[in-house]
Amino acid sequence: MHDEPLFPLLTPEHPVSDQFTDATAAVDRLEALYAEATAFLAKHFTATVKGQRPTGRVRAFYPEIRLVTTSFTKTDSRLSFGHVAQPGVYSTTVTRPDLFRQYLIQQIGLLMQNHGLSVQIGPSSTPIPVHFAVAGNPKISVPQEGVLEFSLRDVFDVPDLATTNDDIVNGTRTAFADGSFPLAPFTAQRVDYSLARLAHYTATDPAHFQNHVLFTNYQFYVDEFETYAREALADPANGYTAFVAPGNHELTTADGPLPSLAKMPQMPTYHLKRADGQGITLVNIGVGPSNAKTATDHIAVLRPHAWLMVGHCAGLRNTQALGDFVLAHAYLREDHVLDDDLPVWVPIPALAEIQIALQEAVAEVTKLEGYELKRIMRTGTVATIDNRNWELRDQSGPVTRLSQSRAIALDMESATIAANGFRFRVPYGTLLCVSDKPLHGELKLPGMASDFYKTQVARHLQIGIRAMERLREMPLERIHSRKLRSFEETAFL
Fold first, then answer.
1. Closest to 309 in 3D by CA, of 169, 457, 416, 449
2. What pLDDT does residue 1 have?
3. Where in the chain is the domain with CATH 3.40.50.1580?
4. 264 φ, ψ (degrees, to nearest 5)
């Protein structure tokens, strides 16, 4: 909701809503509406900060997509997306249609194909906050409150956290105020909020993010990723076109320079790009479930096709060795950061497609198969905790719970990433490398890494990349299966 204006309302002259039977044409109209609205806001905002206060309140609106269906006709039951379940009016506001162009064409096209209906494109009743309208424009900066002689809120709409939430994906919102049902998992304001946060935390433009995301908690993987990327760029046949580092530094040749930032962001992010967006993004989220939640909360709006955790963990079994791999097939959530959004009693299942891709990638890289693979990899429950120094507490409680859960490894990120993947309907998985065994006297101390451990860590990232490349070859409807969809789902992925 937004306050009613106390002064004359200045808005762009939007055209009336139109029906479209062609998805590309529909997205073209979305782009035109959005460009017109943001240009209008930028023009008035620039004049305002120069001292020309508008004669009224300046407001422009997000474009929206609407679908109206009156039929109970069932669509292909094998599909988990691309259709609505019952008659009604469905809608979603849209931001940055240029960034989401291929996604929108795909999702709108599926609606048209599965229901044989047109979609309506026009301006919504949701104002675009001026901060988001001018975001990314290097010529415009938003002054802090108090710099101008009047409050920005008196003239422009600003971000409203009261309406920027996860009600749709959390299942607590079934309809909007106008009676329409959500067509997409996120509203435009929620997407804009996350796009701004992503640019801040990762120091890369959201446009660089690829559809397959690797998370790690160790700088070594970043170094390995750059090495792999340079080798990939040397061979044009593999389809990779560029490597992007923090600061939006882009490398297109194997031997090109890659300057580093004087001050790195909180979550340094690197992108090995393909022209179709099906490349790989690596995010060094650092340590802790809070970081893991923050990263996945925002990356989720980009609707990636999969994300995987490839990091270090504590091995909990005496039979494990430093450098062994752990393939998670269940998660013990002792991190608590998602308890308010996803109750702890909600199971986080292993996804067969992800598990198979990871196991096959381990076999391919290590040259071990079948029973021999058990020498270096265990499959089991991974526990995630929010206390890095849990070993210093009374051992009777944590160790008993870990034993009862049959946990084989402990870390601080994996269950959070998997649980948020489940919540946001993003396929997820975990492959960890044992870096210490605190219950057996092998603490993470300098000089304790064996040659075997060093070799395994070097291969670990390669395994994650190969798993993602296998998933990339999988049909979209197979990886985005019904396992992650609830009773009443949005039509858009």
1. 416
2. 47
3. 203-483
4. -75, 150
Task: Give the pLDDT confidence of 47-84 residue by residue, as tens digits.
Answer: 887 777 777 899 999 999 999 999 887 777 677 888 99
Q: What is the pLDDT of residue 389?
A: 64
In the CATH hierarchy, which fold is given to the domain comprising 203-483?
Rossmann fold (3.40.50)
Q: Is 220 exposed, middle or buried (0-12, 13-18, 19+ CB in 10 A)?
A: middle
Report whether 123 contacts 37 (CB < 8 A). Answer: yes
Tens-place pLDDT, residues 128-158 = 999 898 887 767 666 655 566 667 788 888 8
| CA nearest to 366, candidates 315, 358, 228 | 358
Which residues lie closer than 8 Å to 438 by C-beta, 6 or more apart? 314, 391, 444
Domain with CATH 3.30.1730.10 in the chain: 9-198
Where b means 16+ CB within 10 Å and e means fewer, 140-160 reads eeeeeeeeeeeebeebbbbee
Candidates 1.20.1300.10, 3.40.640.10, 3.90.550.10, 3.30.1730.10; CATH matching 9-198: 3.30.1730.10
By CB atoms closer than 10 A (0-12, 13-18, 19+), residue 285 is buried
Lowest mean pLDDT among 24-28, 355-359, 435-439: 435-439
Sheet containing strand 18-20, edge to edge, reads: 18-20, 119-127, 61-69, 88-93, 181-182
Answer for the pair 434, 320: CB distance below 8 angstroms, yes or no.
yes
Pairing of strands 212-216, 280-284: parallel
Q: What does the alpha-carbon distance between residue 9 and residue 31 come to, in Å, rounded to a whole number?
A: 23
Nearest 5°: phi and psi at 339?
-55, -35
